[in-house]
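Why does residue order matter? Because the sequence determines the fold. Keep that principle in mind as you read this record.
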Amino acid sequence: MSELPEQPEPLAPAESAADAHKHRPIKSFVVRAGRMGSGQVKALAELGPKFVLPFKPERLNPAAVFGREAPLVFEIGFGMGDATAKIAQTLADTDFIGCEVHEPGVGALLKHIDERDLSNIRIVQHDAVEVLEQMIAPASLAGVHIYFPDPWHKVRHNKRRLIQAPFVAKLIQHIRPGGYLHCATDWEPYAQQMLEVLTAEPGLENTAQGFAEKPDYRPLTKFENRGLKLGHGVWDVVFKRR
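Structure:
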């Protein structure tokens, strides 16, 4: 008599959508494909070893990284890096760590660093939430920049937005008292959510009555300029750590 075939183990019950969302870790990004230009590839190869910090589950020593003691600003999702480079050039006495997972953006910012001869920027190509939790010491940041994060336009996707109360509560632990959190968006419903979430956080204080005037150090991006010409709005919120 032939042996019966081995029976597969029963499948575990499928996790409900609600449970999946409840246990989903906070992420600062969504992976998207992008093409690398030859200049970006070259910048990654030649400048990456100097300006891109490897993700490590250990505290960063900014003075050792930058070779000086200076205020430290953390940027989440710098895109193609043009605004980041301009801000770093304007605020030369401040050091910047930018997190971006998309390689074309990393390559583009490295090109800007080279063209502007900047020494006060370092990049971590990794999820910003994990970088904050494992590499950035508590109360060590002079500021945090979050410019034009994914607005997740559809209502059913709003829960994926980065600026939510649990994330903000984690984030401000790394901002020193008197330090700031500066967010900007061109999507008004998200701007309203940002304002509501940050206002409700007891560790933060609004620096304006509602939305803030665009600080001088934040340049207008080409997309922002295009939008303003079409009558689209841009909203800045700037809060201070109590």
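Residues 140 and 211 are 26 Å apart (CA to CA).
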